[in-house]
Task: structure prediction
Amino acid sequence: MSRPEGTPTADNFALKEYTLPQLTDGMVHVRNLFLSVDPYMRGRMNEAKSYIPPFAIDAPMEGGAIGTVIESNAPDFVPGDLVIHMAGWRDEAVLPAKALQKAPNISGVEPQAFLGILGMPGATAYFGLLDAAEAKGGDIVFVSAAAGAVGSSVVQIAKAKGMTVVGSAGGPDKCEFVRSLGADQAIDYKSGSLLVTLREAAPEGIDVYFDNVGGAHLDAAFARARLHARFALCGMIDGYNSREPAQFRYIIRMIAMRITMRGFLYGDYVSRLGEFYRDMGQWVSDGRVKSRDTVMDGLESTPEAFLGLFTGTNTGKMLVRV
Result:
């Protein structure tokens, strides 16, 4: 493994075999079923101080995973338990019990949902929209990367809460997917001026912007913001592989429109996951919220799946089936 310069390539990754440690007291042996790849992982490839330590060179990558317990030396876990953890990018792992969370008991839900709509992406959407952006019924919401794991969740949560939604996605097929989720308008950012298409889609302006992209999307949101608009800054994938500084033509409107911008992280809300499971679990069970996954097969495909996040390969959540 090596640290990428700009956009990562397959050469930055290596598939290696490791001998699992002994199953000592308090340890659990897990066989993974699905692995998650997420845009935030790109930041951890840089050797820079951030909210989470960088990945170590020549050490197993980490990421969200769901698997089954096959052997346990911890009283709270037994073989067959479905567990969520952060030791992804491998087929099996031996972990301390404190590193595992039992998957919630929600009827009719496939295991991989706990890495997507009922996992970190769904919770990021839920708390980012309803807490960080303080969105409420009647608001006009603009969400970028609306066909992705987080964005598609934002669209559906906003509609469940009585908001008007404009989603941006790349290409006609993804825009059609965004509309199928209930979005009132879907704009193709590849089809022309984003500012023009957003003005046409939201002629009255926007009250909330959920940012997954940054760059031109954020600038267009500045331009179309209404008085006291609230921006939730979740991710800025446009800049993850760039060394060029972002430039914003309309940022000055923050003053006149009294715009509030708030960055947030999933980890800020872990203590409140009960609220998320209560609401999202109900919406998923009654069909108001649906999930869509893009799945690649085999541990060896994990780098390809990750790189696909930056070229728009995925619709919905990108997963690897081990």
